TrEMBL record:
Organism the protein comes from: Pseudomonas palleroniana
Pfam families with a match to the protein in the record: ADH_N, ADH_zinc_N_2
CDD domains: MDR_like_2 (cd05289)
Coiled-coil region list: none
Record protein name field: NADP-dependent oxidoreductase
InterPro entries hit by this protein: ADH-like_N, ER, GroES-like_sf, NAD(P)-bd_dom_sf, YIM1/Zinc_Alcohol_DH_Fams
Record-linked SUPFAM superfamilies: GroES-like, NAD(P)-binding Rossmann-fold domains
């Protein structure tokens, strides 16, 4: 079968189409004919080797994580799905990818595709949906009336996280460029900062949570806008000891991650706030709950551009430019 793969970890990872064997499923897996694959920024980071100590792949590795498609075979231990079911899922951190014609999907990470969404819309959801859910509900336990800062509101994570935060009853601030101000307001943002005209740390104060979504010094600046007892949940690092311990990493990597996060930990301690790094995990049960919100249109997919399968590499290059308003999706079938 045809798949978009990378052949090595480097600045030139040789990304291109390759013929790879069709998966053989295990008893607890589904064989899924993929109709669409959603792209995420980490898909471009993985081939550089940035996450090589954390994410394990056999090379050449199929790229992508998010998918939507039809179940064409079920393993002998599968109980929740049958042949013909339309599902969506994330394969992130499972060692295989989604920009391909077929994939083996563990039953535990899959959910029924909401009837209200087509395959392209459904494929845009898993990673941004699960990341937002795990950050806002699980890690931060957001309550109605709390104030949340979600930078980069027009991006893939931002467009979903703003909607989820508003559903949870929070007041949301975000940053975006001049042309996207109206867009993020329509998603529910209460306070919108045009980063070309203002610095967020000069405008915001007494916030309960910062969702770290932008690189550079934004995480450190975020410390100043939080109230005592506030939280930073970062999706972009620095990685911390708690993450290393949760993944049972060796002493050396635990030490390295501790050093990487030492500065932000020190700043957080001074302000009596907490910092943690979040690495999303696939979870079919959570995805099913997210699907229920999508069915009732309390949250809607935001898609910037759809590329045909044969232009999947160009789709990744487009995403890497950092200008997408919402998600980029590859339509495979």
């Amino acid at each position: 079968m045809k798949a978009l793969t990378f052949k090595r970890y480097s600045k030139s990872p040789e990304i291109g189409f390759t013929q790879v064997p069709r998966p053989t499923i295990k008893p607890d897996e589904l064989l899924v004919e993929i109709h669409a694959a959603g792209l995420n920024p980490i898909d471009n980071m993985i081939p550089t080797g940035m996450f090589k100590p954390v994410l394990k792949f056999e090379l050449p590795a199929v790229m992508g994580s998010d998918l939507a498609g039809i179940v064409i075979e079920v393993g002998s231990a599968v109980t929740k799905f049958k042949v013909g079911d339309a599902i969506f899922a994330s394969l992130f951190d499972l060692g295989n990818g989604s920009i391909t014609e077929f994939a083996a999907v563990p039953e535990r990470v899959a959910a029924q595709k909401p009837d209200t969404l087509d395959f392209v819309q459904a494929a845009s959801i898993p990673m941004v949906g699960l990341t937002s859910w795990q950050a806002l509900k699980e890690r931060a336990n957001i309550k109605s009336g709390q104030k949340i800062f979600i930078p980069a509101g027009s991006g893939g994570i931002g467009t979903f996280a703003i909607q989820l935060a508003k559903y949870l009853g929070a007041k949301v601030a975000t940053t975006t460029s001049t042309g996207n101000v109206d867009m993020v307001r329509k998603l529910g943002a209460d306070e919108v900062i045009d980063y070309k005209k203002q610095e967020f740390e000069q405008v915001l104060s007494s916030y309960d949570l910062v969702l770290g979504t932008t690189r550079g010094d934004a995480i450190e600046k975020s410390v100043g806008i939080l109230k005592p007892g506030g939280k930073i949940v970062s999706l972009i690092g620095p990685l911390d000891k708690a993450f290393a311990n949760a993944r049972r990493m060796n002493f050396f990597l635990t030490f390295v991650f501790g050093m990487m996060s030492r500065k932000i930990m020190r700043l957080a301690k001074k302000k009596n706030i907490s910092y943690s790094f979040l690495f999303v995990r696939p979870d079919g049960a959570q995805l099913n709950e997210i699907g229920n919100l999508l069915k009732t249109e309390r949250i809607k997919p935001v898609i910037d551009k759809v590329f045909p399968f044969e232009h999947a590499k160009q789709a990744l290059e487009y995403l890497a430019q950092g200008r997408a308003k919402g998600k980029v999706v590859v339509k495979i079938k």
